[in-house]
Amino acid sequence: MRQIELLSPAKNIECGLAAINHGADAVYIGASKFGARLAAGNSVQDIAELAIYAHKFNARVYAAVNTILSDEELEEAQKLIWQLYEAGTDALIIQDMGILQLDLPPISLHASTQSDNRTVEKVQFLEKAGFSQVVLARELNLEQIKNISTQTSVPLEFFVHGALCVSYSGQCYISEALAGRSANKGECAQYCRLPYDLLDANNEVVIKNKHLLSLKDLNLSEHLSELLEAGVSSFKIEGRLKEADYVKNITAFYRQKLDAALEGSTQYQKSSSGKTTIFFTPNPEKSFHRGSTSYFLKGRNEGITSFDTPKSTGEYIGKVKEVGRNFLRLDTSETLNNGDGLCFVNNHRDFSGFRLNRAEGATIYPAEMPHVKQGTDIYRNYDIDFDKQLNKKSAERKIEIEVHFSETEKGFLLELTDEDNNRVSFPCESKKEAAQQEQKALDTIRTQLSKLGNTDFVATKIELDLKFAYFIPSSSLADWRRLAVEQLEQMRSSLYKPDTKKIEPTIHPYPETELTYLGNVHNKHAEAFYKQHGVTEIQPSFETQAVENVPLMFTRHCLKYSLGGCAKYKTDAESFIFSTEPYYLQYKDTKLELKFDCANCQMLVAKSHVGKILE
Prior knowledge:
CATH architecture of the domain at 2-164 and 216-272 and 280-286: Alpha-Beta Barrel
Low-confidence stretches: 610-615
Strand order of the largest sheet: 1-2-3-4-5-6-7-11
CATH class of the domain at 2-164 and 216-272 and 280-286: Alpha Beta
Mean pLDDT: 94
Radius of gyration: 28 Å
Strand content: 25-35%
CATH superfamily of the domain at 2-164 and 216-272 and 280-286: Copper homeostasis (CutC) domain
Structural class: alpha/beta
Largest sheet: 8 strands, parallel, barrel
Shape: globular
Helix content: 10-25%
């Protein structure tokens, strides 16, 4: 059966522990350096603690070391990788192929989405190079994923939820070009979330002050079964900069969805152990999101952009029914609470929000009265009651065991068998004394042997195999139970083995013989790797030597399509504003030129005017 994992993000150890408790089969977390989220680094000690906890449930910990590395950083990176391996890390997520030339421990490598994995040929190459898992590009559709999976055997990882980079990952250089902050070094300045004016060839403003490169957030929760059938084995949640409440809610939501998709399957099974009990009702609309999109999973569609705001829109709760002097009456069935945060899009299509001072049913009294009209859609982007639920104990994860208690010549035998078929037998030497109250004695034995509350286990079955009902002191039963549980814990710990893999040098050909700046070759080891695999011409990375007059962003999001000017998909394209190309995006003194590569159905963004963003 194919092992299926739910992979959750961890900003820090708190988020990592929350992810495991709320049902993650694996967690990915940034190491102390060299992660594509520079602000989400963690010490080796914290990662070691997380790994110890995760491994109790046969869950795994992946460390992100997925920036490109300079020659000066390679030795430090090698040292860090060995430390991560010794700390119990199960795999490294990397994009820099120079790492494969280092002296590596026998640790599994996962090819980051930053390495631009969108073709059969690229995934086949990575598989032959020794990668144990490949993170596919977010832009792929179901047919493309299936095409890759049927021609490879390496496990495929795919994002199913969270923020979307507008550019193909690893192929965005706009932050480096304009601010000296490389996305490939984990320092993205997020130019895609800024408001822009759209200018035509005559420098006339066509659209003013809109977030024209900002996308909604991904939500593929209704497509998990289709993704399973297409060949996805790892379902990845984005969010290494998100806090613990986001991790709890979204992980719990996808745990329930994925369990439903796996139920009764003879093809797939969950890759970790333990049953998670959720003490709240997960709802992704109550965590940070910019609206939801399935992106390109089912092909190009109009619902991928978030032009009005890059902020969290929250959940739709209803319309404004009446506007009073200091109150609003809403047409809503939702329960609102004092302290909730509400938001709306005003007449200028700007995003605005306010906090509730008091709520009386559908009548609300804002702390400061907003400028809002009757009929306006209202959203809640902060639910104070939901937040309180997440701040309490919101989930519990337990490994199911069966308890068998029988008698022996010298006393009794306590046997524990966990859900992974690990079994321990603990002999309990004791005198046998017939109980005067038989039922009470049997109930006492069952009760004491089931008291596993402070452990990682829960008893789903207790079987007593006794000739008579015996009186056994509760203290003795508790001691036997404790010692047997410790024995089972030690067994599980000793049996856990990471999927180690020693990377051996390979010489199979890379799909291309030439690499431009798009290859992100940033060090001599990476250059040697590609030459070893048949690449004859190699340009250095954009970060090493900025290349003039080249695209800085490659995106399947296309403004021609989104604004109704695509000749392929729109019948009225000829009458649309894009007939006067070229078009530009402008923010303050930064001007970007748009180029439309219709043959490959993508939009390119290039620097038109040298300038920095003004703070």
